[in-house]
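Example record used in the benchmark description.
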Amino acid sequence: MRFFIALEIPKQNLLQFQAIQDKLRTLIPQARLTDLSKIHLTLAFLGEQPNELKDKLIDIIKKASFQIPPFEITPAYIDGFPSLHKPFVLWIGVKGDIDKLFLIAERIKDELEYLHLSVNERRFVPHISIAKLKNNFRIDRNLEEKLEKIAAGNFHPIKITDIKLFESALDGGLHKHNTLAEIHLGISI
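Model output (structure tokens):
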């Protein structure tokens, strides 16, 4: 199975991402927009792993969320990987209780290393991917200013109440995300 651990964006917040994507569609028609049903904030991507790992991953999520109550994050800015000016991916950065995101992500990373699972060594940047672009796409200053205006909107906070273990499964040439487990925040082990 292809596993990943993430925060799913609640349905009531998806309209604001759809509004951002609608504006992106006009500004960058060649962008491949992320399907709204797949909008999430990844805490750890594990890739292809044995199915038997599922229960251990659920335990890792429980340990990582120990004594962390529900919290809020708010969309704050648009950026890109590897950079905004030459992006392969456009994403929304968040503000708010991001210290809790960093704590959870670090706890997950520590537990994965304990299991000798390969962990992404890049610095954790809390983000929500919204579009993919071809390698030769460039964002000039004019387009950057337009993206800044989109990000300057008043966004509603996103209430984070649980962490999910997902499976990314091939479905007709595309990947669909299946929820394997949902661990609620604020619950003791």
